Structure formats: C-alpha cells, structure tokens
Amino acid sequence: MESPILEVKSLRTTFSSDNGTIPVVNEIDFHVNAQEVLGIVGESGCGKSVTSLSIMGLIPTKNGKVEGEILYNGENLALSSEKRMRKIRGNDIAMIFQEPMTSLNPVFTIGEQLIEAIHIHWKWPKKRAREHAVQMLKKVGLPRAEQLIKEYPHQLSGGMRQRVMIAMAMICEPKLLIADEPTTALDVTIQAQILDLMKKLNHETDTAIIMITHDLGVVAEICQRVIVMYSGKIVEEGDVRSIFKNPKHPYTIGLIQSVPDMREKKDRLYSIPGNVPKPGSIEVGCHFAPRCPYANERCKYETPPLFTFDNGQKVRCWLCEEGRDVVND
Fold first, then answer.
1. What is each CA distance from 213 to 97, 98, 107, 183, 216, in whole angstroms?
2. How far apart are CA 91 and CA 108, in angstroms?
3. Where are the domains of the chain?
C-alpha cells in the first residue's frame, strides 16, 4: 500500500478584509503519495495557488490565516514556526513559481543563487557546492553550464530561466516538489520540454510532484491522479484515466468539453457560462449551482458532501448521490 508523503486535512485558508473574513480555501482534504504526480486543476480564482502557498507556509500572517492539518511525514506544518519552515522549504519541500523573473534575484548570478541554497541546507564548501550546481544545470538540460552559472537571470531566455528554477527547486533533492503553473508563460515547444524534464526528474529522483495548472493537457501528460477545485473546494478527485474517460461533476464535464479537439471542426469552442464566484460570496448550497445546467432547488440551498464511487472517484454533487451519474442517469 502506498504511503502518503503529504496529507492535507480540513485545510481552510482565510483572509481578513473590510468586509470580514473571506474563505479562499474551504475545508479541503487530499494526500500525495511518495513518488506520485498529483494534478490540481481549475479556473483562475478557484484556490489552487493559495493551497500551495498554505502548504509552504507562505500565507502572510498579517491578514491571512491557515487552519487544519498539513502533515508532512507526520509533522503538522500548519503549527510549525517560521524558523522550522525555512529548514523545510527547499530541502524537504520545494516550489516552482509561475514566473521565474519574479522568483530569481536579478542582482545575483545564477550560480550564486544555486550555491546559496546548498550552503543554507547542506553547509557544503563553496567548491563542492559549485560543482553540484553545475551538475544540476546539466541535469535539467541547460547547455554550457560552467559559463551559465556566471550569468544573470536577464541574460537567459524564458525557457532557460524556467529550467534554472527547476534546478534551484531540485538542488537539495526534496521529497516533494510543488509546481505552480510552471509552463504557462512558455510556448508549446518549450512547455513540452519542461514537462518531459519534470517526468524525468520524477522517475530518476523519486520526487513526488504536485502539479498546479488550469491546462488539462498538462494533467493528461504528466499526472497519475487529479483533483478538480472550484471556488475553494474540491469538487472531484480520482485517477486521471477515470476523470478523463468518465467525468462525473458538471464542472469537470464542462472543463473537458472546453478543450479543443483537433479531430473535429467547430465554428465555436465550448465555454462554461458565467464566472467563478468571488470568495465568500456563496454561503449555502453548491458553489457551482449558478453555472450548472443540471442544478435543481436542492443544489441552491444544501451544500453537497463528497460522494465516493466504487472506483475511488470522489464527486461533490447531489446528482451523484447513491452512485448516480450526472449525464447518464
């Protein structure tokens, strides 16, 4: 039986504002197994990135609050001090951000930034750390690594900067890597290379990966399991094959229908009507009900739990109660 490297239980992340406390991530539960690639997918504003920042302990404490349990090898990171989290970040759990130019320091060379991470966590001498940095740059497919460590981020292309970010995240061989939309700003050729690289690193280093994306193509390419989030809640969860072959939540069905099919010629692409609601704007009922073509009165006034099917697929929809299927029943 696979053992979870990370367990998230009843995670609730809120932010205080002039209008009161606003829940952005609302009571979610999931786990990541060792060596697994888990996808978290959904539209912008559904809580994907806030979930990753909550795990990393990067929610600002001035107006943000994280409740629940974030168990990494049994240790609850939600209760860990900032000093303890600094030891965990980069060493045990690392993160790749969406835009590398905002994550790489423009006044330090690539080598200085890689070597700093090694020095902080492993305390290696500078020469040994430099050799390891060069090897990691080669591992992520970057040419002329010996010269590259002397260059600054602005001297690199977007694809090269993203590879540097992956090298920096993997430099201390973390057990869990969180990738927040790592291919969004890249063209399709570079995107394919980055995904191949992450699959390779997952196989070679046994690092578990949480892939956060709005791109279902990325999920199909790299993930074994997928979580679909909507308005701060998990609405569907299961293995990738089951989700793509037989999606059960109306939102998941809509997401898959909106993916262009190159085999068919259509005058107009499908899109889910309406928009993701503002966090905290819906207090009762199913959050997707205002956009759902199958919604009934119960959906508006009662919040559905996650129903579990025989194949392990979980769906938050009243229409799936007692094992029913939204589309076929």
1. 11, 10, 30, 9, 8
2. 21
3. 226-329
Identify the CA nearest to 99 among candidates 202, 186, 173, 41. 186
Cα 225 versus chain centre, distance: 12
- Residues with Cβ within 8 Å of residue 137, at least 6 apart in sequence: 110, 114, 145, 148, 149, 163, 164, 167
Return the residue matching tokens 């892939």.
211
Q: Return the half-sphere exposure (C-beta side, CA atoms, 13 A cut-off) of residue 17.
A: 8
Short-list 217, 216, 288, CA closest to 250: 288
Structure tokens at 322: 């007692």
Asked if 34 contacts 3 with a C-beta cutoff of 8 angstroms, the reply is: yes
Q: What pTM was computed for the model?
A: 0.91
Give CA–CA dist 180/212, Å, rounded. 5
| Sign of the CA dihedral with 253 first, then 259, 262, and 266 last | positive
CA 310 to centroid of chain Cα atoms: 26
Q: Return all residues near 230 (Cβ < 8 A) that are at least 6 apart.
A: 42, 43, 46, 251, 276, 287, 288
Q: What are the pLDDT digits (tens) for 243-271?
A: 999 999 999 999 998 877 767 777 777 78
**DSSP labels, 71-113:** EETTEEGGG--HHHHHHHBTTTEEEE-S-HHHHS-TTS-HHHH
pLDDT in tens, 82-118: 999 999 998 999 998 877 677 789 999 999 999 988 9
Amino acid letter at 257? Answer: Q
Residue written as token pair 């000093």: 83
Report the candidate in 180, 176, 182 with the shortest Cα–Cα distance to residue 164: 182
Give me the helix-helix angle, 158-170 and 110-122, nearest 10°: 10
Torsion angle, alpha carbons of 203, 204, 207, 210, to 10: -40
- Which residues fall within 8 angstroms of residue 144, CB to CB, at 6 or more apart? none
Q: Which residue has the tokens 């191949």?
A: 196
